[in-house]
Amino acid sequence: MNIQEKPKFETPFAWIGGEDAVRALSERFYDLMDLEPAYAQLRAVHGTDLANARQRLFWFLCGWLGGPQHYTERFGHPRLRARHMPFAIGITERDQWLACMDQAMGETGVDADLRKRLNESFFQTADWMRNQGV
Questions:
Q1: Which residues constitute the domain of residue 104?
Q2: What's the domain count of the chain?
Q3: Element counts in the chain: helices (H) and strands (E)
Q4: Which pLDDT tens digit goes with each residue over 52-73?
Q5: Is residue 23 in a domain?
Q6: Domain containing residue 28: CATH number
Q7: Does residue 7 sit within a domain?
Q8: What are the contacts of 123-128 at 24+ separation with CB within 8 A?
């Protein structure tokens, strides 16, 4: 890229396609978690009703990707690690979360370059969230 060229998108939020695309990604993520046996251990830590988790992930991702700060407007700083501390998160849960999100990104048509960048960021965050050795 020429140093004088502006990036194609100002934020990952714009790149992914805005709120509708983030909503579709959040919904597909939880649909897959609910349906796919490969994500059973991850699903087990979410309780019986996913409606609240779906909404909060959507709000969080909007802001995290550089869009509207829906989550922080409602709840303040995400404090991800502290909020997830009551749940046992080990390598299995981390890896299932990452695989589920990657599958959701693939199925909702997230651009391949953006998907690669997001997977790298998601790994860093998901690994930091671990509170169990395995």
A1: 16-129
A2: 1
A3: 8, 0
A4: 999 999 999 999 999 999 999 9
A5: yes
A6: 1.10.490.10
A7: no
A8: 123/98, 125/80, 126/94, 126/97, 126/98, 127/94, 128/81
Question: For the chain, how big is the Rg over CA atoms in Å?
Answer: 15
CB 91 within 8 A of CB 115: no
pTM of the model: 0.90
Angle 101-27-92 (CA atoms, 0-180°, nearest 5)?
A: 35
For residue 4, being part of any structural domain is answered with no
Residue type, 122: F
d(CA 77, CA 96): 25
What is the DSSP code string of 69-90?
-HHHHHHSS--HHHHHTTS---
Across residues 99-117, what is the average pLDDT? 97
Q: Phi, psi at residue 47, to the nearest 5°?
A: 75, -175
Q: Is residue 9 part of a domain?
A: no
Asked if 51 and 34 touch (Cβ cutoff 8 Å), the reply is no
